[in-house]
Amino acid sequence: MLVDSHCHLGDRAFADDRAEVVSRAWDAGVSRLVIIGETRASTELGRTMAREDARIGFTAGVHPHDAREWSDDTADWLRSVAPDPGMVALGEIGLDYHYDHSPRATQQLVFERQLSLALELGLPVVIHAREADDDIAAILGNHPAVPAVMHSFSSGLGLWRTALDLGHCISFSGMVTFKNWTLDEAVRATPDDRLLVETDAPYLAPVPRRGKRNEPALVRHVVERLADIRQQPVEQVIEHTGANAARLFGWEETHGVA
């Protein structure tokens, strides 16, 4: 089961051909998509698409860029969306100290609150981590019972080890195909049962499409590069990442995926 575990199909980059993008993904052998809801608008679009096609899951959460907009109303909204059978995780949530669009203390507070909410709702979380390794590790350590995936992993090996020690999954994107990629060690050493794959479309298009709009159909390029680094057959990587996505996102129980 080839799964794109993280794509932003609610992004305006897909406004003119979203249906065609999804169709190309199915034609390319992708079995499931997870549409990330980093805003209310993208969440509602993902929710609608998931209701129309059971192969699509969606998430909802407050991105660290928008942490300053958090309120009790936001928490209530997330609680109202969570029972939807298509919702598979809270996210993406976390910390971003590169752009600092929201104050760091606010990001940390909202990250903590959403982790607590995920535990209340029984949902895994999708983690955004940029230039905030120590604080991400500390906050995740405060919530060890919440399953997580480290999305588009490119952080340091210290955070990688912490995430694995806490039982979390590591997801790799098209960045693994870039010439400046330096984390082959993490790719090789991530256990088979913790590995996920994603596009992060429309961002981070893999070689040979780097610099162009990314889309879920290109996730196989990421898988092929992971297989090369890990010295495993492509189909084995697809099998492991698909099973891990099904387990993390609850598809075995809610959608009958083995």
Strand content: 15-25%
Count of DSSP E strands? 8
Helical run tally: 10
The structural domain count equals 1
Shape: globular
Determine the N-to-C terminus distance: 10 Å
What helical percentage do the residues reach? Answer: 40-55%
| Mean pLDDT across all amino acids | 96
Oligomer: single chain
Rg from alpha-carbon coordinates: 17 Å
Task: Summarize the structure in words.
It is built from 10 helices and 8 strands. It has 258 residues and is of the alpha/beta class. Helix 5 packs parallel to helix 6 (157-165) and helix 8 crosses helix 9. 48% of the residues are buried. Residues 253-258 have low confidence and may be disordered.
Short description:
The chain is built from 10 helices and 8 strands.
How would you describe this structure in keywords?
single chain; 258 residues; alpha/beta; TIM Barrel; 8-stranded parallel sheet; 10 helices; 41% helix; disordered C terminus
How is this fold's topology laid out?
Blueprint lengths: L1 E6 L10 H10 L2 E6 L4 H13 L3 E5 L11 H10 L5 E10 L7 H18 L3 E6 L2 H9 L6 E3 L6 H9 L3 E4 L11 H6 L5 E3 L21 H12 L3 H16 L1 H4 L4
Parallel strand pairs: 1-2, 2-3, 3-4, 4-5, 5-6, 6-7, 7-8
Helix pairs in contact: 5-6, 8-9
